[in-house]
């Protein structure tokens, strides 16, 4: 027999008010582009921290990290075009354009160098491009489960079904970002000047071994997506990750058990890494 228990509203535990989000995005105009950003400032910042989001992720994914750093540093977050309220009429992207956009935003907000760049996933490549183009302005670099360089093929070499799927299902901004991945990786690989300043790479691993792909059709029927099924990898992901160690031999590597979106699951790990990179208070 099933018993249903009812209680009056007065018997229910009181609802606790949720604190307001720390990040309150605004819109600014950058050379005709509408860019959504959030900036936090303190009276005596220990550092200026600049954050780059992963592919099509919103700046709000850094909320937990921002709370852990809001009393020590100036912080700048932004959404690249196509994410949140950021808009652009650009027909193509390039490493130079992406770095220039961020530089323009930093100058507009009057944030002083040197900067610490923090990039998650694909944002790790954007952070590396900025560091490569403005090396004197960057004091340290943190890559949060960053996409290894050279891992993704040019879009023209994707299988036909992958290109068709992107055209049908992906927004224009997503297609532009994906098309820019290979050019960013090649730009960084072809300009191998060593970054000799403090650097940490956060690399995730899962608690249990991940199952192998069963093939595109079977995986889709089971509601599972593996990137290797879509023919986008230029080389084995493990080999690409190992190559990152040769590109940045001076970087401290911290392996953590977490999912890919570390900044949301374990923001404290990101905060601890950042605090290791900035001057002591």
Shape: globular
Q: SSE order, as H and E? A: EEEHEHEHEHHEHHEHH
Helicity level: 25-40%
Class by SSE composition: alpha/beta
Let me know the CATH homologous superfamily of the domain at 21-151 and 195-208 and 236-277. Alpha/Beta hydrolase fold, catalytic domain
The overall average pLDDT, rounded, is 86
**How big is the Rg?**
21 Å
CATH class of the domain at 21-151 and 195-208 and 236-277: Alpha Beta
Question: What is the architecture of the domain at 21-151 and 195-208 and 236-277 at the second tier of CATH?
Answer: 3-Layer(aba) Sandwich
For the termini, the CA-CA separation is 63 Å
Q: Can you count the helices?
A: 9
Strand order of the largest sheet: 1-2-4-3-5-6-7-8
Query: What about the largest sheet?
Result: 8 strands, mixed
Proportion of residues in extended strands: 15-25%
What's the oligomerization state?
Answer: single chain
Extract low-pLDDT stretches. 1-12
How many strand segments? Answer: 8
CATH overall fold name of the domain at 21-151 and 195-208 and 236-277: Rossmann fold
Explain what this protein looks like in three dimensions.
It is built from nine helices and eight strands. By secondary structure, the chain is α/β, with parallel strands linked by helices. The chain has a domain at 21-151 and 195-208 and 236-277: Rossmann fold, CATH 3.40.50. Strands 1-2-4-3-5-6-7-8 form an eight-stranded mixed beta sheet, sandwiched between helices. Strand 5, helix 3 and strand 6 form a beta-alpha-beta unit.
């Amino acid at each position: 027999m099933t018993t249903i228990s009812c209680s009056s509203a007065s018997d229910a535990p009181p609802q606790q008010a949720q604190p307001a989000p720390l990040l309150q995005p605004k819109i600014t105009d950058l050379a005709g582009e509408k860019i959504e950003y959030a900036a936090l400032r303190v009276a005596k910042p220990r550092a200026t921290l600049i954050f780059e989001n992963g592919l099509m992720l919103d700046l709000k994914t850094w909320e937990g990290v921002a709370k852990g750093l809001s009393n020590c540093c100036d912080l700048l977050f932004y959404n690249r075009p196509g994410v949140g309220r950021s808009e652009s009429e650009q027909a193509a992207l390039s490493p130079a354009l992406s770095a220039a956009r961020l530089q323009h935003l930093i100058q507009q907000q009057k944030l002083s160098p040197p900067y610490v760049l923090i990039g998650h996933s694909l944002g790790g490549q954007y952070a590396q491009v900025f560091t490569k183009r403005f090396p004197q302005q960057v004091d340290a670099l943190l890559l949060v489960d960053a996409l290894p360089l050279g891992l993704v093929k040019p879009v023209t070499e994707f299988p036909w079904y992958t290109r068709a799927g992107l055209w049908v299902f992906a927004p224009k901004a997503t297609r532009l970002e994906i098309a820019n991945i290979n050019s960013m990786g090649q730009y960084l690989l072809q300009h191998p000047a060593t970054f000799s300043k403090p650097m940490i790479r956060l690399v995730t691993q899962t608690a249990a071994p991940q199952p192998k792909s069963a093939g595109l059709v079977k995986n889709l029927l089971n509601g599972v997506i593996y990137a290797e099924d879509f023919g986008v990898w230029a080389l084995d992901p493990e080999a690409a990750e190992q190559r990152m160690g040769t590109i940045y031999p001076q970087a401290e590597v911290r392996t953590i058990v977490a999912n890919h979106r570390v900044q949301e699951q374990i923001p404290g790990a990101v905060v601890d890494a950042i605090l290791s990179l900035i001057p002591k208070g």
